[in-house]
């Protein structure tokens, strides 16, 4: 069985969903997972103002209540001149996929999420992303230096590959993140849209498999 998750590391509901996907994989190690990055705010240029921060804190509170995951609210409020562009971190996920195709990409994806939501680092900065990505891959048994990661992240082929992911997500009819699909016999069937806990995921997948 193969699942395809369409998500963005800087989407708060995707952050909560990552925990549930990890739980699902722990229950079913036979499940393979592909990740397509969605580009929630890829290419955004507007600076995150106080109203934007408060809006996101409201979402964070709901995700925290649903998932139990921590959020660094002070880190968000302290940001000055921050442009909420998700293309760089999406591209970092693609860079990890290129550097280590056999790695557990969900763990790497969640490392970028933790960097943004808990460590409150700048996940639009290539140097920061290279550090997080190299450490996550190395921890997974795929040794990569920060310089190697940064070089791949900066390459035109990786920029193009991330853009291709964004296009593919739209072609799949994805309008909200996260979205999860079941891939069987060359066909994709939607498991669900938005956050769901592991019990719900298991129920929905079982229903699709039985259909």
Describe the structure using short key phrases.
211 residues; alpha+beta; Glutaredoxin; four-stranded mixed sheet; 12% strand; DSBA-like_thioredoxin_dom; UPF0413 protein; Thioredoxin-like_sf; oxidoreductase activity
Compose a concise summary of this entry.
GO terms for molecular function: oxidoreductase activity. With 211 residues, the protein is an alpha+beta fold. 55% of the residues lie in helices and 12% in strands.
Written overview of the protein:
By secondary structure, the protein is an alpha+beta fold. The protein has a four-stranded mixed sheet, with helices on both faces. α4 packs across α8. It has a single domain, classed as 3-Layer(aba) Sandwich (Glutaredoxin). The mean pLDDT is 95. The chain is built from nine helices and four strands; from the N terminus they run βαβαααααααββα.
Strand and helix map with partners:
Blueprint: E1 2-7, H1 12-27, E2 32-37, H2 50-67, H3 73-77, H4 87-99, H5 105-117, H6 126-139, H7 146-154, H8 156-171, E3 179-184, E4 187-193, H9 198-210
Parallel strand pairs: 1-2
Antiparallel strand pairs: 1-3, 3-4
Helix pairs in contact: 1-2, 1-5, 4-5, 4-6, 4-8, 5-6, 6-7
Radius of gyration: 17 Å
The percentage helix is: 55-70%
Query: What fraction strand?
Result: 5-15%
Superfamily at the CATH H level? Glutaredoxin
Q: Main sheet?
A: 4 strands, mixed
Based on secondary structure, the structural category is: alpha+beta
- Find the CATH topology: Glutaredoxin
Low-confidence stretches: none
Question: Which strand order does the major sheet show?
Answer: 2-1-3-4
Please write the CATH class name: Alpha Beta
Number of DSSP E strands: 4
The termini sit apart by 15 Å
Indicate the CATH architecture. Answer: 3-Layer(aba) Sandwich
**Number of helical stretches of at least 4 residues:** 9
Outline, from the CA principal axes? globular
Estimate the mean pLDDT confidence. 95
Number of domains: 1
Order of helices and strands: EHEHHHHHHHEEH
């Amino acid at each position: 069985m193969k699942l395809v998750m369409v998500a963005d590391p800087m989407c708060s509901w995707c952050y909560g969903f990552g925990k549930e996907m990890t739980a699902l994989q722990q229950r079913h190690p036979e499940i393979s997972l592909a990740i397509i990055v969605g580009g929630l705010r890829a290419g955004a240029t507007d600076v995150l103002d106080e109203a934007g921060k408060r809006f996101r804190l409201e979402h964070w509170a709901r995700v925290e209540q649903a998932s139990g995951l921590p959020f660094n609210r002070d880190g968000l409020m302290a940001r000055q001149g921050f442009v909420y562009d998700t293309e760089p971190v999406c591209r970092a996920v693609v860079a990890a996929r290129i550097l280590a195709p056999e790695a557990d990409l969900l763990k790497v994806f969640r490392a970028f999420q933790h960097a943004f939501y808990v460590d409150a680092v700048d996940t639009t900065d290539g140097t920061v992303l290279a550090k997080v990505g190299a450490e996550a891959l190395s921890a997974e048994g795929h040794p990569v230096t920060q310089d190697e990661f940064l070089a791949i992240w900066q390459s035109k082929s990786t920029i193009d590959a991330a853009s291709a992911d964004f296009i593919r997500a739209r072609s799949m009819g994805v309008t909200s993140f996260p979205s999860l699909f079941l891939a069987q016999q060359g066909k994709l069937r939607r498991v669900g849209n938005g956050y769901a806990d592991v019990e719900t995921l298991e129920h929905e997948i079982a229903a699709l498999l039985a259909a």
